[in-house]
Amino acid sequence: CWVHLSSIAPPSSKQELWKYTRTGRIIQHAWKLSSNLGHNGPAVMKDEVGRVVIVNGNYQSESTILPEGVTISVSAEPYQPHTPEHFFEALSFVYSTCVLDIHVDQHAIIDGLIHIEYHHNDQDVFSAPVIRINAGNHSHVKFAEHFLETSSACLHIRNLEVSAEASSKVHIDKIQSGGTNSFVINEDRITLAAGAEFRINTK
């Protein structure tokens, strides 16, 4: 990972892919990793059947609630699924703050939403969580990702991997409400087996 990070130049807003991103402000800012897990607590949201809570890039198991048929584990292995395609992806591989594996059992039908909440309450924090979702054969599950508003400056790079097995359905709503000092970069990689369905909406 370090080799790739040192060999890839940071992007410029002059490049087509990054023309709407304030890359200069991101690169020049002094970001830091944080182990602070204190926050105001998750609110019970509409149609909620479960929640996964991440604070400053760190998984908070005490606030996480999962419905029957869904399990979560934390991987201690270094994260690098492929050669990074750009500087920020390489940065998130080197400094991934947590790697979560969410598994949905075969034939599990999850009624309601599982909310994935990203909280940031530490100043100048860098967070790079990895969310890997595996939906078993013939399972149905819906997630809502929330990047919650913060007054603190933060750089949040989220890697999402979804593996949907045969005839499974995975739906995800991405809801972003970060502050003016927040920078959010999302990377999505989807693998679908025969008959599987994946849908993602951004709000």
Strand order of the largest sheet: 2-1-5-8-10-12
Largest sheet: 6 strands, mixed
Q: What share of the residues does DSSP label as strand, in percent? A: 35-45%
Structural class: mainly beta
Overall 3D geometry? Answer: globular
List unreliable stretches of 5+ residues.
none
Query: What oligomeric state best describes the polypeptide chains here?
Result: single chain
Number of DSSP strand runs: 12
| Gap between N and C termini | 32 Å
The helix content, as a percent range, equals under 10%
What series of H and E elements makes up the topology? Answer: HHEEEHEEEEEEEEE
Q: How many helix segments?
A: 3
Rg, Å, rounded = 17 Å
- Overall mean pLDDT stands at 87
Structure write-up:
The protein is globular, with a radius of gyration of 17 Å. It has helices at residues 2-7, 23-28, 87-94, and strands at residues 48-55, 58-59, 70-74, 98-104, 113-119, 125-127, 129-135, 140-147, 154-164, 169-176, 182-192, 197-202. Helix content is 10%, strand content 41%. A 6-stranded mixed β-sheet has the order 2-1-5-8-10-12, with no helix packed on it. Strands 3, 4, 6, 7, 9 and 11 form a 6-stranded mixed β-sheet that branches. By secondary structure, the protein is mainly β. The protein is built from 3 helices and 12 strands; from the N terminus they run ααβββαβββββββββ.
